[in-house]
Amino acid sequence: MNVITKLSSSLGRRDEIPNQQLAQSITNKKDRKAVKELVTNLDHDNRSIQNDCIKVLYEIGEKNPSLIAGYVKVFLTLLTHKNNRLQWGAMTALNSITLENPRIIYNSLAKIIASADQGSVITKDQLVNILIKLCGIKQYSGAAFSLLLEQLLKSPTNQLPMYAEKAIPIVTHKNQALFVKVLISRLDDFQKETKRKRVEKIIKKFNKLNEKQ
User: How far from the centroid of its chain's Cα atoms is residue 71's Cα?
Assistant: First the structure.
């Protein structure tokens, strides 16, 4: 399969439908040669080709992470690429393969977090997703949860309710007090009432659980 000719930009399209269709086709066929071709063209001279390739790769990762898991080091390298689309696209791909390669992801957290700190909102969103997944793995849960709390402490208020809601499944009896404490510390930061109420709802939920225990 010549994947380059099937990319949106190669077809003169400005929408993502051809890229999504290509990702589905590659996933269905488990076409590892096509995946390799996409990875090879991440450094194509044409930035539109680069952008399309990373889009297809993380779409594949969402459907079948094992197909792109072998390229974790490539995605880590892209976190400092001058093309911002490749930066957050790589972070999205890393999120999709976290459970495939948790040790490598965990050992690379310093670089991943540094990239998110300097990156776009999407990059930060994907970092939080990565940390939540690591919190669900026993050997990484303690350190990952501490790092997640750090993100909650400094995250933009627009994103905080979503982050806190996503974290609910990995909050345990042992760490829920810290989780609630962090959320309470951020309540005065909200300017939008709707955002604050979402966080207050989470706080109340855990306070009620604590009363029953």
Answer: 16
d(CA 148, CA 171): 11
Burial of 191 (0-12, 13-18, 19+ CB in 10 A): exposed
Nearest to 53 by CA among 14, 90, 102: 90
pTM of the model: 0.94
pLDDT at residue 162 in the model: 98
Q: How many CB atoms lie within 10 A of CB 14?
A: 8
Find the mean pLDDT for residues 179-183: 97
Main-chain dihedrals φ then ψ at residue 120, nearest 5 degrees:
-75, 175
Task: Name residues whose C-beta falls within 8 Å of residue 99's C-beta, 6 or more positions apart in sequence.
Answer: 65, 133, 137
Span 122-138, pLDDT tens digits: 999 999 999 999 999 99
- Cα gap 152→161, rounded to integer Å: 9
Interatomic CA distance for residues 61 and 72, integer angstroms: 11
